[in-house]
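Lab manual, section 2.4: Encoding a predicted structure.

Procedure: take the sequence of the chain (69 residues), apply the prediction step described in section 2.3, and record the output as structure tokens. A sample record is shown.
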Amino acid sequence: MSESLSVNLTKPQLDVLMRGLRYVRSSYLMEPEEPSDQVLANRQAKLSELAELKDYLEKAIPSGETAKV
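Recorded output:
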């Protein structure tokens, strides 16, 4: 994630986005693939990218509030 894009989201929109990320994460974990080092590394890279995005979005939430996921 090297390019940056600023988007103003309302709290409900952010909640929807965070919930969607949870489903994307689940889909990565449930992809039916033969376990190999390359598959595991690719999956871990995808999960790390999602975690980074989730952390970034959580910082956008005003302190004291949490996203409803």
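Check your result against the sample. Residues 37-59 form the longest helix (23 residues).
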